[in-house]
Specification:
The protein is about 55% helix and about 10% strand. It is α/β, with parallel strands linked by helices. About 40% of the residues are buried.
């Protein structure tokens, strides 16, 4: 390239999110005083620079760029307070110096990939490990520690621009050596660097003379002005690339999302430590370690772990001594963690893990001002969060909602609507011991990645409610079966989506008329019944649900017996779940119009010995619990199914269905326990070995107390007092009580017994 002789381009090769790099960039900009600052990033981000000086834009934040026709094709460009790129942006905006982003444009990066593909794009890329190579050359086995020692910790001496030049030369040597071993061109980075140089050429053509380019250290050699290839070379690389329309905005980010363990390729291992290092290096270099120990102590004390001042002093001294012993310029994170583990955690990794989460990584969530343009659904969500006073946080919190209050219902509806949109801000958890249906408990944690789902939701509506209702309607149109549609009905109730509920009920009614699978109909009863039962708590109109429910229960009842014929084990398990779901729904509503046909169907199934034992056993137990089968009848049927003539696996299946849930029926009916005991005692050893896994599965569902009680009942044998149903007296057990009553009444005792 032929360039103006007065033009100066200084590539500032940095480690993304490195506090030492950030300080060096700031010093380099002060020394160079450029008239243009270029930052690595797609040029579509240029409009976002105007918001950088806004005090309401608090890092960590990320620039989000997404394809307008498919927001799921998106890229994030995160910035922390200690990111060199953020420091460069703030420096330039504060001084009125223009800023531009340079990289392969997002209109190409996010364009749909051609199935055929470009043969050149199919070539495998080979990337040199620049930092790892330099670390090994310096005698380090840990690249992170080398970078921290060489770049992050030392104070700059002499010209900082010279230090950047030396780093660029070192990276050049690594790249050249790698290219000699892998001559195939790295097309992805070649295109990116061609796009970067195109922006620089345009800047010089506009009259800029001193340009600072903040980029990853890997790209610095490609931006050395004397080594620029001809513009035609770069133009050929960038020709005929696919395009798509894109949009950009700012979104809040978290320190946790800056970790490389989150999947972020340019991430760091300890964002909280880097933030602390960057902040305190400016305030008081000598205060970095003591201030860190104070932050650690605060986290430990919040968790109820003792951290006295004397221990903090000892830990600080130990960290400094470890740095000297290891030949490091100052105490780094490794020395601090070792000191904390030894002194403050008593060698236990458990509290150290707390320090890792709360301090080393950090729980900070950035902020984006309201006036920054954002996707319509995201803007609506921000308004609703303020309205219901539910602020997003990167840390895990729990809240219990009272659905009797307007704010409780509003919060609940918002969280359920977001879940329908794929934004799992809240996860329902157990509300604890409560006798009502008016409480919901949630575990909340905001993930910045939700931004993409919110943008994607904008294709289906401009508000959270509209987008959720449209999503439910679309899901109903493609629902695979009736149970899935029934679940959507319940979801609409929880999310307070009347329009969505109407669409799903209509789809369910239409699908029901063509559904001949009685088990599928039975599976749909549970969610419908819950919607009908709890709709009044949320003020929802469930009249259409009630009408549909009656039809579904009747049709499921009519076809139940035929649907349970000739089932294998897997089909029987599905049938049993369907029966349990339907029975739960019918019991919940306590409606005679629903109970009558369902109980008649269960009765016919329970008396039939042909279907799979698991299904028949379950039907008998449900009827026994409902008082529709007397214990004597249940005992007779159990004795018949557990007779020596019955196949042992079939008997075990019937027993499993009958005993599912709890052992109360065995603890209160001696006849049932005796039948079971006799059957097991009379089973041949060879057969018993095969039965044991089946029986263990059945009894494993009981609590430890129930299993002990059953064992005591078997060991005790038949109680005195006659047949089942008669009065059972335990005279020996009652003797102390009788003696006490006798004394109170003044009756004489003979030999310790009542005369």
């Amino acid at each position: 390239m032929t360039a103006v002789t007065t033009s100066v381009l200084v590539p500032l090769g940095i480690r993304h999110h490195g506090p030492g790099s950030a300080r060096a960039v700031r010093a380099a900009l002060e020394e160079l005083q450029p008239d243009l600052v270029v930052v690595e990033g797609c040029p579509e981000l240029d409009p976002l620079v105007a918001h950088v000086a806004d005090p309401g834009l608090v890092p960590p934040v990320a620039a989000l760029v997404y394809a307008a026709d498919d927001p799921r094709r998106a890229s994030f460009y995160p910035f922390a307070a200690f990111s060199p790129e953020w420091v460069a942006l703030r420096w330039a905006v504060a001084r009125g110096v223009p800023v531009r982003f340079a990289d392969l444009p997002a209109v190409h990066q996010l364009a749909p990939v051609d199935v055929e593909g470009d043969p050149e794009d199919a070539r495998p890329a080979s990337y040199p490990d620049v930092i790892g190579t330099l670390a090994r050359t310096a005698g380090y086995d840990d690249p992170e520690r080398w970078w921290e020692d060489a770049v992050e910790l030392p104070d700059a001496t002499g010209s900082v621009l010279d230090r950047f030049a030396l780093l660029r030369e070192a990276v050049t040597e690594v790249r050249d050596a790698h290219r000699s071993e892998h001559p195939d061109e790295d097309l992805e980075n070649a295109r990116r660097e061609a796009a970067m140089r195109r922006v620089v050429r345009a800047a010089f053509k506009e009259g800029h003379e001193r340009v600072a380019f903040v980029c990853g250290a890997f790209h610095a050699p490609a931006l050395h002005l004397p080594d620029f290839p001809a513009a035609a070379h770069d133009n050929r690389l960038l020709a005929r690339l696919p395009r798509t329309k894109v949009a950009v905005t700012w979104v809040p980010w978290t320190h946790g999302r800056l970790q490389f363990t989150s999947g972020y390729g340019a991430g760091v291992g300890s964002p909280g430590w880097y933030d602390h290092l960057f902040t305190w290096a400016d305030r008081d270099r000598d205060g970095v370690v003591p201030a860190w120990m104070v932050a650690v102590a605060r986290a430990l004390r919040t968790a109820g772990i003792d951290a006295p001042p004397a221990s903090l002093v000892e830990a600080t001294r130990l960290a400094d001594e470890l740095a000297v012993m290891r030949g490091r310029p100052s105490a780094g994170l490794a020395e601090l963690q070792d000191a904390v583990l030894t002194v403050l955690c008593d060698g236990s990794a458990v509290p150290l893990q707390l320090v890792e989460e709360q301090v080393v990584v950090g729980q900070r969530l950035g902020e984006v001002p309201e006036h920054v343009p954002m996707a319509p659904v995201a803007a609506d969500l921000a308004r609703q969060q303020r309205a219901v006073r539910l602020k997003p946080s990167a840390s895990v919190t729990e809240t219990v909602l009272d659905l009797r209050t307007p704010n409780g219902r509003a919060r609940s509806a918002l969280l359920h609507r977001l879940r329908l949109l794929g934004v799992a801000w809240g996860t329902p958890i157990d509300a604890g011991r409560t006798t009502g249906t008016f409480k919901e408990a949630w575990r909340l944690q905001w993930d910045p990645g939700f931004a993409v789902a919110l943008v994607d939701a904008g294709l289906r509506g401009t508000t959270v409610a509209d987008a959720a209702a449209r999503t439910v309607a679309e899901d109903a149109a493609v629902a695979p079966d009736l149970p899935a549609l029934s679940d959507l009905v319940e979801a609409c109730l929880l999310a307070d989506l009347p329009a969505g509920l109407a669409a799903v009920v209509d789809a369910l009614a239409e699908r029901t008329t063509h559904q001949h699978d009685a088990l599928a109909l039975a599976e749909s009863v549970g969610p419908l019944a819950r919607t009908r039962r709890y709709g009044d708590v949320r003020g929802a109109d469930t009249t259409h649900v009630a009408d549909l429910l009656g039809t579904v229960v009747v049709r499921a009842s009519v076809g139940l017996r035929a649907a349970c014929a000739s089932l294998d084990d897997d089909a029987a398990a599905r049938a049993r779940r369907a029966i349990e779901t339907c029975d739960e729904g019918v019991t919940l509503l306590d409606d005679e119009a629903l109970r009558r046909p369902w109980h008649e169907a269960l009765g016919a199934l329970a008396a039939d010995e042909a279907p799979h034992g698991s299904v028949v056993g379950r039907a008998n137990r449900l009827l026994l619990d409902a008082g529709l089968v007397v214990p004597a009848t249940a005992a007779e049927r159990m004795a018949r199914r557990l007779s020596p003539a019955a196949p042992a696996p079939a008997a075990a299946a019937w027993l499993d269905g009958f005993l599912a849930g709890d052992a109360a029926v065995l603890l209160h009916d001696d006849d049932l326990l005796r039948i079971l005991d006799d059957w097991m005692a009379g089973t041949a050893d060879a057969v018993f070995d095969d039965l044991l896994p089946l029986l263990r599965r059945t009894f494993a569902r009981f609590s430890s107390a129930e299993r002990r009680a059953v064992a005591r009942g078997v060991g005790r044998g038949p109680r005195s007092g006659g047949a089942s149903g008669g009065l059972v007296l335990d005279v020996d057990g009652a003797a102390p009580v009788l003696a006490g009553v006798a004394r109170l009444l003044g009756a004489p005792e003979v030999g310790g017994a009542v005369a």
